[in-house]
Amino acid sequence: MSATPISHAYGVGLLAVIVGLGLGLVFYTGFYLPESLAKPSVSEHILHPTTTLEIEIVPGAVIEGNDSYVPNKASVILEQNNRVIWINNDDTPHTVTPDHRTADSYSGDFASPGVIKTGETYEFLFTEPQEIPYHCEPHPWMTATIKIEKSRGI
Hints:
By secondary structure, this protein is α+β, with helices and mostly antiparallel strands. The chain contains two helices and ten strands; from the N terminus they run ααββββββββββ. It folds into two domains: 7-38; 44-149, Immunoglobulin-like (Sandwich).
């Protein structure tokens, strides 16, 4: 009884598959993955605005009919005040939740990560023009809109 000989074609084919997988892995980790994870190019003036807009959640905002967010129709200008901070000055925890899922291509999803407790803040850097209606998740009568506009110089 003799063993069946293995041809050289099998070894060459196996070597080709291994080399192909190695090249594919190098391309994926070296070129494709970094490109897909890269944030878009944004002007330094937008990333470092001259001022910050503060939106206050006023004391007693939980009471229906009270001014929820001040200002509740905020206007943001890119390069000027596009870094926005929500400050909870109420005795009740609140959220900043968009009415519809909203994302900024540089800063990611817009929404406070859970509740903002008394004395805490939520900060977001807007880099694109858009208009976002939002509300407080536990208190849906607390509504507001923020409008992000281009600066005349952009």
